[in-house]
Specification:
By secondary structure, this protein is of the alpha/beta class. It has seven helices and eight strands.
């Protein structure tokens, strides 16, 4: 894993020029649900290469149909989820990981978007996972030209507790959970700008 991380450090320094803001915001222990907009196949690496903890990513099952990719992504801690349907197996895996105090990653848009201009709504499942796993939510924004010699930005926001946001009385309120998911996604889109204080990749 460290070797893979080193490879992507080189890639994101020389070939996809990446600037990372505030990776230190990620909680260094306890269960965490990382949520981000989804722009490319490189997103999980762009987010994970500067975070000391290893993020277990929920990824679309289509990736795992290719045996080579399946081995690679499984080795990197990713696990499949069926899109467009309730995937009991993926939900169980997510719950078990959070119960063990792991950090997992989810792209709540459900598919790749087109940056801030192509806003896609968030599916609320990540909020439910955070509630059930008593986990913090860590928002992350990715934007820029994710291509060879392009310029890319990754910005980690402030982590938050669903319980503190909603209060105990609304933890099972479907409308409140949906609204928090939408607000979180809006916050991610709003983070797509270079802050005054920069942490270089």
């Amino acid at each position: 894993m460290e070797f893979v991380r080193w490879i992507f450090r080189v890639i994101f320094k020389l070939f996809v020029r990446t600037t990372v803001f505030y990776p230190e915001n990620v909680p260094n222990q306890g269960p965490v649900v990382v949520v981000s907009n989804h722009e490319s196949m490189l997103d999980m690496f762009l987010i994970g290469y500067r975070v000391p903890r290893y993020i277990k990513w929920m990824a679309k099952e289509e990736i795992f149909r290719n045996k080579l990719l399946a081995k690679l992504f499984t080795a990197l801690g990713a696990y499949p989820v069926k899109r467009g349907a309730r995937d009991v197996g993926a939900a169980r895996t997510t719950k078990e990981l959070l119960e063990r105090g792991e950090i997992i990653g989810i792209f709540p848009q459900g598919t790749r978007g087109k940056g801030k201009k192509g806003r896609l709504p968030a599916k609320p499942g990540f909020v439910r996972f955070a509630v059930d796993g008593d986990a913090m939510i860590q928002p992350v924004a990715i934007w820029g030209k994710i291509r060879l010699f392009g310029r890319v930005y990754v910005r980690f926001g402030e982590p938050f507790s669903v319980r503190e946001k909603l209060g105990d009385e609304h933890l099972n309120d479907r409308a409140a959970i949906q609204q928090l998911a939408a607000d979180t996604m809006d916050g991610i889109y709003n983070m797509m700008e270079v802050p005054g204080e920069v942490s270089k990749g």
